[in-house]
Each structure stands twice: as structure tokens, then as C-alpha cells.
Design a protein that fits this description.
Layout lengths: L1 E5 L4 H13 L4 E6 L9 H7 L3 E4 L5 H5 L6 E4 L15 H21 L2 E7 L5 H5 L3 E3 L4 E3 L8 E2 L2 E2 L11 H20 L3 E6 L1 E3 L11 H10 L4 E4 L8 E6 H13 L8 E4 L6 E3 H12 L5 E4 L9 E2 L4 H6 L8 H14 L1 H8 L1
Parallel strand pairs: 1-2, 1-4, 2-3, 4-5, 5-10, 10-14, 11-13, 12-16, 13-17
Antiparallel strand pairs: 6-7, 8-9, 13-15
Helix pairs in contact: 1-8, 4-6, 7-9, 7-11, 9-11
């Protein structure tokens, strides 16, 4: 089997490349990436060591994709992942990359009669709808209440039943648009595809920064004893996300590659879930425990555009229909990131510090 992973030198892409090659040494694994994100070039060393082919290309350029040749599976993990992309500047890049680039990938799948694994996002759900959900404030975090008047939101989080009406960011809109195109390709061209709306993905290999990769950012700042900020919602760090270890994502993608018929025509949410959720305050406590370092954290009251007080993935549908559920805890995620930074401190200091 020949598997192409677009965005292959990124966090999720590189982890998938190495994990799949390790499990299936006879498969041809190809990482396809434009190396735009700082730090992605470091993964090329690991690719060479593990006999993973690398193609320097851009999904926006159809000729680059055609140069790959024939393949059996394409995992589309190449998105511009920042929620704030295009909100305070021209959105052309995020639209071209996440929509038009993805369509080039879909066309390549049709040409090669290949399967498509599409990594979508929880950000397809409208911001205002989620922000209007009922919540309670606890000592260290906000949580959804159970007595919601919005279908698709409960104490357990956001399910696939939540209405998609409303604004969601250019990032979220491009990913939702791609989902809709996949439906068309499936209906009219017979494309076999798995669409998964992932929440926050975290773990080793992520070059974290403020707008994307906050878990790595949090650990890195504690590791090197640098300051952080609680931004928005009163500046107390009570906003909550569920966190999915990248290894749990790999397990799901592996299953999708080999059982795609169970996913075709469906869309699933997949995240850490309520049991693997944490507020910024709680993330701070975990980082302090692991590193032994206490750092300065400033408070900024004003909430940023397109932010969410709470996002928790309700995994009920995928757990009940597929049997997948996350296995790794929030603390395990942070410990794995800590050990990764410690083992690669010299290389990562220039990027993460």
C-alpha cells in the first residue's frame, strides 16, 4: 500500500508517517509538505532514518500533487490550522490552502481510485451558538450545564447534532466547505472518504505557539521559565478544551485506512472528551507539577475574536458506532511533551523558547 500524507512534515502528519511506517514497514509512506511552518524541516531527519519518502510540494499547486504518481490512500493533514488566520488580514492564504488545495487532493484521489482520510475540525461549529450555551463557573474552570436549550450541546460537550448555521472563522468555513465537497465527490464519483472533526490535538512533535498548539506552548514556557498570559473571559484562565493525544488520533486514522467502508457517508467528532478536558488554570498546575517551575502569568480581561469559553468533544457517536475512544490522559500528554522537549532541548530551544 502507498500512503500519501499531505502536511506530512507537520505535527500530526509527521507523527502519522512515523507511526504507520513503524507498524507497516512494507507500506510506502510519503510525506508531502511545503515546509512553511517553522520547525517542520527538523522532521526530514527522522524521515530519512525511517525510510519515509519526502516530497517538497504545495497542495495549492496541482502539478506538485500530480508529481506524486499513483497511490492508494491520501491523508489530508495539510491545513493552515490557525483559527485567527484571515481574521485581521487578507484570508486568501487560508482559503487557497484549506479549500482549493484540498480539492486538488480530492481530484488526485479520484484519478488514482484512492481512499481519502480527511482531518476536519471542531471549528466547523458556529462560535455564537457555542458561546450562548448555558455554563457554570467553578473554582478553576467553566463547564457546560446539562439543562441546555440548544440541541447538540450537553454537559458532555458538543455532538454532531449541533446546527451548523452561523459564522465560525475562515479556518472553520474552509474545512466545512471541504466536507461538503467530499459529499459531492462521494455521491457523483464514488470517492471513499472518512471525515473526522477533531478537537485540540496535542503531544510530542508539535511546534506550539499562541494561536495553535497551546498545550506545547504551555509546557515550553514552564520548561524555560518564561511568562504566559491568561487571555479573555476575565483573565482567570478558566476557559476549557478537551485534549486528544496524537497517539489516539493515529490509532483512529489507522483503523479508518483499513475499514473505510464504516466511515463513508458519515461524519464523526473525535476528541479527548469530558474526561480529558482541562482549563488553562489546570494546565498550569500540571506543568508546575511536572517541571517543578512556577512562572509569571499575566491576566488580560478582554476576549479575543473567535475564541470560545468552552469546547468539549462529545464522542458518543464514534464510541457507540465504531468503538473508538481516547486512551491517554491529559497528564500523559503533558508528560510526553515534557520528555520530548528535554530529549531535544538544543534543537527546540530556538523554535519554542
Amino acid at each position: 500500500m502507498k500512503i500519501i500524507i499531505t502536511g506530512g512534515a507537520g505535527f500530526v502528519g509527521s507523527t502519522l508517517c512515523l507511526a504507520l511506517k513503524n507498524k507497516y514497514p512494507n507500506y510506502t509512506i510519503v510525506a508531502f509538505d511545503n515546509l512553511k511552518r517553522r520547525g517542520s524541516e527538523l522532521n526530514l531527519i527522522d524521515f530519512k532514518k525511517n525510510n519515509i519518502e519526502f516530497i517538497h510540494g504545495d497542495i495549492r499547486n496541482n502539478e506538485d500533487i500530480l508529481s506524486i504518481g499513483k497511490f492508494d490512500v491520501l491523508i489530508e493533514a495539510s491545513a493552515e490550522p490557525s483559527v485567527t488566520a484571515g481574521l485581521d488580514s487578507d484570508p486568501t492564504y487560508v482559503i487557497n490552502n484549506n479549500l482549493y488545495g484540498s480539492i486538488n487532493c480530492f481530484n488526485a484521489c479520484i484519478k488514482n481510485k484512492a481512499k481519502l482520510i480527511f482531518l476536519s475540525t471542531s471549528r466547523v461549529y458556529p462560535i455564537d451558538t457555542i458561546e450562548k450555551a448555558l455554563y457554570r463557573e467553578e473554582e478553576t474552570k467553566f463547564l457546560f450545564t446539562d439543562n441546555q436549550n440548544i440541541e447538540g450541546i450537553s454537559h458532555n460537550g458538543i455532538s454532531e447534532a449541533l446546527s451548523l448555521d452561523g459564522a465560525r472563522s475562515f479556518y472553520g468555513t474552509t474545512k466545512l466547505s471541504s466536507e461538503l465537497f467530499i459529499e459531492e465527490y462521494a455521491a457523483f464519483y464514488g470517492l471513499q472518504a472518512a471525515i473526522t472533526r477533531f478537537g485540540v490535538i496535542a503531544g510530542p512533535r508539535q511546534m506550539g505557539k499562541t494561536d495553535q498548539g497551546v498545550v506545547t506552548l504551555w509546557m515550553a514556557k514552564h520548561y524555560w521559565k518564561q511568562s504566559l498570559k491568561y487571555i479573555g473571559y476575565g483573565g482567570k484562565g478558566k476557559q476549557v478544551r478537551d485534549l486528544l493525544h496524537v497517539d489516539d488520533l493515529v490509532e483512529l486514522i489507522d483503523y479508518q485506512i483499513h475499514n473505510i467502508e464504516k466511515f463513508t457517508g458519515k461524519v464523526y467528532n473525535a476528541g479527548g472528551g469530558l474526561q480529558n478536558s482541562a482549563s488553562l488554570q489546570e494546565m498550569t498546575a500540571i506543568c508546575e507539577k511536572i517541571t517543578g517551575n512556577k512562572i509569571q502569568i499575566d491576566e488580560i480581561v478582554e476576549t479575543r475574536t473567535a475564541d470560545l469559553r468552552i469546547y468539549i468533544t462529545n464522542n458518543s457517536k464514534i464510541e457507540n458506532e465504531i468503538g473508538w475512544k481516547p486512551k491517554k490522559s491529559v497528564e500523559t500528554i503533558f508528560r510526553d511533551i515534557f520528555h520530548w522537549i528535554k530529549e531535544n532541548e538544543e534543537q527546540l530551544e530556538l523554535i519554542l523558547k
